[in-house]
């Protein structure tokens, strides 16, 4: 009888050791999952930052193009003014020169219209890029807000699993003690 009690106690100790090992393995797995989630979130943040940098570079390029177009517009306006002055001077001299200057004016006006259209297109592109930047900033803010919530949820799940394992160990110990008392 005494030998049976010793064997039961040894079995109880072995079970307790196995349960403790399982608990440690579960804790390690949960920690690995937490690390993987953190790495994924960091990678997402890095990708969003890279996209933001690219959009900023595109915005800078578009701004440079806008400046160049504005300079061209100013030059064309100056040319128009010069041509108008020439027209005023040559009105009394020759009709052919007048016609040629009128044609040049028309061409310059057409160029101005084209440049204005290009400016409008570039402004629309700038607006679209600004909207994309705002959306990316909103995504970054959402990720930064959701990161603590995910960590808190994982910690709560880990605590619940540990409590369940401890309750199972206590129930097994109580059953073994009851069996020993019955024997």
UniProtKB/TrEMBL annotation:
Domain ABC transmembrane type-1: 106-183
Entry keyword set: Membrane, Transmembrane, Transmembrane helix
InterPro entries: MetI-like
UniProt KW ATP-binding keyword: no
Cell location: Membrane
Main location: membrane
Coiled-coil features, chain-numbered ranges: none
Transmembrane segments: 36-59, 66-89, 95-118, 125-147, 153-182
Membrane topology: Multi-pass membrane protein
Gene Ontology biological-process annotations: transmembrane transport
GO cellular-component term (any): membrane
Protein name, entry field: ABC transmembrane type-1 domain-containing protein
């Amino acid at each position: 009888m005494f030998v049976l009690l010793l064997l039961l106690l040894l079995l109880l100790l072995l079970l307790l050791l196995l349960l403790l090992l399982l608990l440690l393995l579960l804790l390690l797995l949960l920690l690995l999952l937490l690390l993987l989630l953190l790495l994924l979130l960091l990678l997402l943040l890095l990708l969003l930052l890279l996209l933001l940098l690219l959009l900023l570079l595109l915005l800078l390029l578009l701004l440079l193009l806008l400046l160049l177009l504005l300079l061209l517009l100013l030059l064309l306006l100056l040319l128009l003014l010069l041509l108008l002055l020439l027209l005023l001077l040559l009105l009394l001299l020759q009709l052919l020169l007048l016609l040629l200057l009128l044609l040049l004016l028309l061409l310059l006006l057409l160029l101005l219209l084209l440049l204005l259209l290009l400016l409008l297109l570039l402004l629309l592109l700038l607006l679209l890029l600004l909207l994309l930047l705002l959306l990316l900033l909103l995504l970054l803010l959402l990720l930064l807000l959701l990161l603590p919530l995910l960590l808190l949820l994982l910690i709560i799940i880990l605590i619940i699993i540990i409590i369940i394992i401890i309750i199972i160990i206590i129930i097994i110990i109580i059953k073994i003690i009851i069996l020993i008392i019955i024997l």
